[in-house]
Amino acid sequence: MINFVTVIRQRLTSRIALNRLLLRIAPNKYLRLEGETTISIDLEAFEQDAVWDGLKGYVTNTKLTDEEVIANYHNLWFIERAFRMNKSDLQIRPMYHRLRNRIEGHICICFCTYVLQLEMERLLKAAQSTITVERARDLVKTMYALTYTKPDHTQPTKVMLGMEDEQAELFRLVEKLVKRDLSNA
Questions:
Q1: How far is 166 from 142, CA to CA, in rounded Å?
Q2: Where are the domains of the chain?
């Protein structure tokens, strides 16, 4: 509060800074200052507002309890991160589709990619790996597999081609996860 009052007092001394200050305040766009004008700071209003400093209010239309609303509000960062990730990392935009089913398909693919990225992040964290999700994305771009079927065999064989240490670590983590999930299915 004191810093804000100090800044306003400094700007009141300069006519140009005062004009800029008044232009920024929305209700004052309807005011016309002509001739000699006296402007003062209402310190009583600042003190009344200071009573509410540090308090936060939540308005909601859900049937959640107060504790659940606050707990969900604390997870807001996760939702905001998801939107940022979809816009930047997953490149949900620009979208060059006109038809509704293609737009929905594009968004569905981006959402599935987001879910896979979250699962990769969870997996790397659980394994206490030093590989980041971004690094994992770069590593898989250069991972190659060869699938072949031997003569007189019906089952194809899959072999991962030469990998760097980080790629091998990532492959082991994902392979372990897939085997575990398939055994639980």
A1: 12
A2: 2-50, 56-126, 131-185
